[in-house]
């Protein structure tokens, strides 16, 4: 079995999370400058077996697509072209940023540490992945 890699896509930074090889535990991987994202993913899958990408699906409260979906669709086309052998699934990512911030508070991070947007993105990716794993 390979890993499942979750992507919390952003126009500036993208949070990444992965499962263990048994696909049981979701852990934050890193946050990558979005301009280097495809290169990072290609390098990662050359070193680790990845069975699937899980990409956040941003929705409004009324269930319509978020404005950022336009950018995500563009990225998904590039991803499919670069790594066509790895399937992509989408997961509703509503509230993940709020939940990530609350997780940081609950874990005792100081206010200065909670301002680290890269960490919020990585935690958001982890929450997306946990949500995906829980759906089985």
From TrEMBL:
Gene3D superfamilies linked to this entry: YqgF/RNase H-like domain
GO MF annotation, one: nuclease activity
EC class of the enzyme, as a word: hydrolase
SUPFAM superfamilies for the chain: Ribonuclease H-like (SSF53098)
One GO location term (cellular component): cytosol
EC number(s) on file: 3.1.-.-
Ranges for domain YqgF/RNase H-like: 2-100
Location(s) in or outside the cell: Cytoplasm
UniProt keyword list: Cytoplasm, Hydrolase, Nuclease, Ribosome biogenesis
Signal sequence annotation: none
Family matches, as InterPro entries: RNaseH-like_sf, YqgF, YqgF/RNaseH-like_dom, YqgF/RNaseH-like_dom_sf
GO biological process: rRNA 5'-end processing
PANTHER family linked to this entry: POLYNUCLEOTIDYL TRANSFERASE, RIBONUCLEASE H-LIKE SUPERFAMILY PROTEIN
Family stated for the protein in its record: Belongs to the YqgF HJR family.
Purpose: Could be a nuclease involved in processing of the 5'-end of pre-16S rRNA.
Name this protein carries in UniProt: Putative pre-16S rRNA nuclease
Organism of this sequence: Winogradskyella epiphytica
């Amino acid at each position: 079995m390979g890993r499942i890699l979750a992507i919390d896509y952003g126009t500036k930074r993208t949070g990444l999370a992965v499962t263990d090889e048994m696909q049981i535990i979701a852990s934050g991987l890193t946050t990558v400058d979005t301009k280097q994202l495809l290169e990072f993913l290609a390098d990662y899958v050359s070193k680790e077996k990845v069975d699937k990408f899980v990409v956040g699906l941003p929705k409004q409260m009324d269930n319509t697509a978020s404005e950022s979906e336009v950018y995500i669709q563009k990225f998904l086309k590039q991803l499919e072209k670069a790594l066509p052998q790895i399937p992509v699934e989408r997961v509703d990512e509503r509230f993940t940023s709020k939940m990530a911030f609350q997780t940081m508070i609950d874990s005792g991070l100081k206010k200065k540490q909670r301002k680290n947007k890269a960490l919020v993105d990585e935690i958001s990716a982890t929450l997306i992945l946990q949500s995906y794993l829980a759906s089985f």
